[in-house]
Amino acid sequence: MENTKVYTQQELYDKKIDTDDYRVNKESGAFLGTLMLKAWATRSKVSGNSRPMRAFFDLEDGRKIIALVQPFRKEQLIAMGKIPIGSTLQLYFEPSTSGYVFLSKFEVVSNQEED
Asked: 69: buried, middle or exposed (CB in 10 Å: 19+, 13-18, 0-12)?
């Protein structure tokens, strides 16, 4: 498996990769987490014809969250796609004007390839 692999929905199903323990983050703030998995989401009203990337993180407080990386944030999407699984990231979530919490930025704290 590639260390930067982004799975499709079909690959998750075929490989029986279970993501049931993960929940979309609804809390604003800064969190430290380990990148466990990346997968393309289905299209949504927000993303139009493009698909957001779902990044699955195990946070240091024990929570398991999903961060959506939206396609209209192209630089973020490309950067997240290049980060190896197992890397530790500082995640920043902010509330949007519509009241949803979104991943506003992230920083790599330790890159799995460097460890």
From this structure: buried
